[in-house]
């Protein structure tokens, strides 16, 4: 029994250390799934005395009005031997062996949250663990006492605020309710019974505790209440005899108080038949036994929750990315791996695995041909323009056989105009590659994690594209210039020869510039230019792919990698400037994942041993 409860206590203690209570997380929490016992009662109902009786120590603040102003999560851990001590969640490395100091720290920590002179309440819990050979393994949550009226110094909403706080604990199906009611008051007016009935109408998880039995009026007793005749619960009522104020003032220890309590029930005729199930010792044992049975019944649900949460935590950690390496070599390797991931995404766009690369083919198959077609060589080769260039090329000495210089000028002036479409093709592919860079960056999850690295990689990739564009443009324009610098002689040799070999010498020199002759020259030049245009239509895409697309796939980040190798650890660290909130989130999730994996192993081992 104690192994099961001790396991839950360890898990709850680990949850406490990690703050795994669900307040700041959308993920399910182990804390909420673990059974707990909430102590509920009205002000001055004897809640504190009951808790101290179960623990066997004086450690709770006392006074009038609302003394418990924050939830106190009390985790009891049974140890085999050694000195009793206490630890607070907010002071994890400090052990308290003086329980008067524990009482003072509870009061001080309450004041730190709510204000020393204030009577305000706070829903922020205080976590206290007590290790003792005289306790049973339990987790008890002491809640502020329910009240009906706000006193001076308290807001009017405090009555509802306390009730809402209490409900937030006892509404959970895994919460066992310890309803404390004073025997010297009518159960019909009991705050604890009233609120317990609302959240647990069948009484399936409510334990009724009657306090102050020894303070009832003479001639009255609590037998009907203890036997469940006044108000029936699924579990038998348990009576407690608290220490009197005189005992507290005299510092009567708990061992003596428990002995007096046993003597009271065994020696009082009305309660003698119930004595075997009365008293704080019996209460602790009953709660521990019941807690064990609840834990056993919850094991399958706990396993399911833990397995599901582990998957969710692993998914979330994967989304956040790996933590930053601490040494320079690790940082360099990490940056290189991220860059390779980005480079891989970029290549997948070009290779068709991801969309976008098809736009480059559209440039070659549609934009370039359309741009070449729009050049309208027939207008450039009009008879007036042909005649003008032919005569200008002849100079003072008219050509004798064929106007070769005129041909060259006409061809060159037409071919040079093809530089515009060639440059436009280079720029269009550059724009597409630049767009794919930005897409690949947005698709590389690790780069979202590090804004500075993302900016550096983006700038380096774009700079590489610009260098490739400039080289590609130079090479592509050279294709056009090569066509201008050397004409294909065979083309002209295959043309029909002029029968007059330059004309009849008896005619005027200007007769050779008649319309037929000029039209024939223009036609020959247009045929040659169209042949060159068809050639360039095929060679320009090859040049662009070779100089830009192929180079981008081969060496997009080469310059960046070369510069990266020269950086020191501190400079590398500036590139891995992760958002501190993400770092904090990852650390928190990693700790939770470690907790849940440990819980998985422990609960699985318990389940297999059943």
Task: Please give the structural blueprint.
Blueprint: H1 2-18, H2 30-33, E1 36-41, H3 47-55, E2 72-78, E3 85-88, E4 91-96, H4 99-114, E5 126-132, E6 138-142, H5 158-170, E7 175-182, H6 191-199, E8 206-211, H7 223-226, E9 238-239, H8 245-249, H9 254-267, H10 280-320, H11 328-351, H12 358-373, H13 377-380, H14 383-394, H15 404-416, H16 419-443, H17 445-449, H18 451-485, H19 489-493, H20 515-555, H21 558-564, H22 569-575, H23 580-609
Parallel strand pairs: 1-6, 1-7, 2-5, 7-8, 8-9
Antiparallel strand pairs: 2-6, 3-4, 3-5
Helix pairs in contact: 1-10, 1-23, 10-23, 11-16, 11-22, 12-16, 12-20, 14-15, 15-18, 15-20, 16-18, 16-20, 18-20
Brief overview:
By secondary structure, the chain is an alpha/beta fold. 58% of the residues lie in helices and 8% in strands. The protein has helices spanning 2-18, 30-33, 47-55, 99-114, 158-170, 191-199, 223-226, 245-249, 254-267, 280-320, 328-351, 358-373, 377-380, 383-394, 404-416, 419-443, 445-449, 451-485, 489-493, 515-555, 558-564, 569-575, 580-609; strands at 36-41, 72-78, 85-88, 91-96, 126-132, 138-142, 175-182, 206-211, 238-239.
